[in-house]
């Protein structure tokens, strides 16, 4: 029996062969239909060159602007968010930058699917009767494929950033514009494209990781819906709809297909996920309101798009129905945009949050650790709605730059408590520094955790950035209480009587003992046990982190 060499990725090869064979057999069975001719009738050589160009552009930003060429899984993110109109770099790059591998992979797969559909709907060749492909530069198929379509995608990306609520990052607003554009011409095929996008994702991940071994283990992460920029996606969708009704050749549009397609697309792409941040890793999801929202959204899309093909005038208002349809489609992005302008005009005057500990400095960046401070990222303009408010509190590693008008909690306290050590890359085009936050702590019996947080820049010295309050164990030994306090050089054991410390001792090393106030404290690896008069009581256990 022949054995494949060890270096050959047999499973990945099997995936590729399965795709080729499957497509080949279907092509043979359906040989009466010339799919190649159909593509070539609308696309130059049957290839969506504009979509390919857009994908290469976005990938180039990730690799060479964000520095992912040398840090594939840890690109620079903070300097490329849309923090403020007063920070041009972020506003110009946010739509084309991404927060990591999963983020850019999802958006590029979406671009490959929905961008191709939108480009096919628009076409590289003019469709007006009597027009020629090279009659003008706008009708030149090469210009349409390699210039106009990519330029349109870039322009839409800028619109979704400049009129979306910041800080935004990612190409998803443009992907939603492709979806909206496709809905105008091909509502059913747009729904089919959702499944195609899922298939592409499965195939891609099968090639990346053909075999996965895993086991149950604790994980940390915010709710999946808390990372969705619904307002940016909504803006992109309606921009695509508006462009579609203005650019695509007029045709009869089936209201039922439009409504069903819009509802399925809006639901599948999670536009129902209306959520809010309450501070300190606390989120709320308004799912019921979200369902009402997508139903209303589908109705607005259907009424607006169908109205744009009506040529008669509404007698009562003496306004063309077509104009009312355009205004209906314009209303949602107008509302989002008007709300975005004051939010995106924000600035940051403070170099660090009040009450913050020692800070690290990397050029214009200040990196600190603070707890329970006002979240400047959401509260620059204080608003209240449905019982929620933008005046919230936050805790964690905070990055501030007055020059870039940014203020963000880069690592929350709860994430640091789970990870134990987290890197925070900062920088800009052509330079990069990495701040590192580390935590050590002890779970005190019956009374929470004491911990310390350290910061350092690159491989520089560690700086003690934060010490939590002392915690007293929920035990009594010979009338005394035992507390653990974080010190500058380590943790300290305090023996307390009548709310006063009567004796102290440093935390013993592993498998060693110390004595304080007539009590012997023994550390067995990661557990601290107190002994007095033959009685042994657990006092604390060292905090464990992911992978430890």
Explain how this protein is built.
With 548 residues, this protein is an alpha+beta fold. It folds into four domains: 25 residues; 290 residues, no CATH class; 106 residues, no CATH class; 74 residues, no CATH class. 40% of the residues lie in helices and 23% in strands. The protein is built from 14 helices and 22 strands. Strands 11, 12, 13, 14, 19, 20, 21 and 22 form an eight-stranded antiparallel sheet that branches. A four-stranded antiparallel sheet has the order 5-6-9-10. Strand 11 and strand 12 form a beta hairpin. Helix 6 runs antiparallel to helix 9, helix 7 runs antiparallel to helix 8 and helix 9 packs antiparallel against helix 12. The model has no long low-confidence stretch (mean pLDDT 86).
What is the helical fraction, as a range of percent? 25-40%
What would the principal axes of the Cα set say about the shape? elongated
Compute the separation of the termini in Å. 44 Å
Spatial extent as radius of gyration? 29 Å
Give me the number of helical elements. Answer: 14
Whole-number count of domains: 4
Please report the total strand number as a whole number.
Answer: 22
Average pLDDT, rounded to a whole number, is 86
Weakly predicted, low-confidence segments:
none
Please state roughly what percent of the residues sit in beta strands, choosing from under 5%, 5-15%, 15-25%, 25-35%, 35-45% or over 45%: 15-25%
> How would a crystallographer describe the biggest sheet?
8 strands, antiparallel
